[in-house]
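Study this:
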Amino acid sequence: MSLLRLNVLGPPEVLHNGSRLSFALRKAQALLLYLAIEGGLHPRSKLAAFLWPDSEPADARKTLRNAITLLRSLLADASAAPSHLLAEQDLLGLNPQVPLELDLEVVQQAYHQAQRLSTVPSEEQRAALVAQVQHALSLMRGPFLDGFWLREEAPFDEWVQQQRQQWQVRLQLLFDRLSSWQEVAGELEQARATLTRWLALDPLSEDASRRLMRVHLTLGDATAALQVYATCRARLAEELQVKTLNGNRRTG
C-alpha cells in the first residue's frame, strides 16, 4: 500500500513512496497540506472559497477540480491501491485507510507526554521520555510551513499563521522540558545544544536565554554567557522599537 509522508515543520516536503513530489500548481499542494493537517472531510464549496476567495464560485469549483485531478495523478499507485484522496458526494478529504505519516503527529504525541509532567520525571520515565522528545524535535526544520504562502490576506495564509503560532507553543514547551531535564541531570553540553536550537526557533525567549546563560556559567564559559545576555538585550530592544513604530503608524 502506498505511503504518503508530509513534513511541515519547516518548508513543506511531500513524499510519496519515498519520492519527493513537485507541484505544478501551488494551490494543489496547499489543498493536500490542508486536508492532511486538518483531517476529516470538507465541503468542496468551502475548499474552493478557502483557496480561491477572489474567484466566482463556479470558477473556483472548476479550478478546485483541476487541483484534485493533479493530486490524483501525483498520488497514483501502480499497484492499484486505494487512493489517498477520498470523495464522498460533495465532501473531500484524505482516506484514513491509506498510510499517512505526518511530522506533526509525532510532535503532538511528545507534547502530550511532556505536558503531563511539570516536574523532573522519575528515572523509570526519563529515558523513554527524553528519547521521545528528542525524536520529535529532530523533525523540526523550522517554523510551520516555513516560507509557504499563497498571497497576502488569503484565508489559507491566515490559517497558516494560526497553525504556526499553535505549533510554536508546543515546540517551545518541548524545548523547555528537555533542556530543564538535561540541566538537572548535569547533561550540560546536551542542554546547551537544546537551548541553542530553542533560541533559533524563538530568538526572543527570555527563559531560553536565562537558562543558556546559566548553563554557560556552570560550564565555566562566562564569555559565552555575556554574549547570550548581550544578544538577548539587543533582540528585545529591536522588537520594542518595531512595536513602537507600528503603533505610531496606526495612530498617525
Notes: The first strand starts at residue 4 and ends at 7.
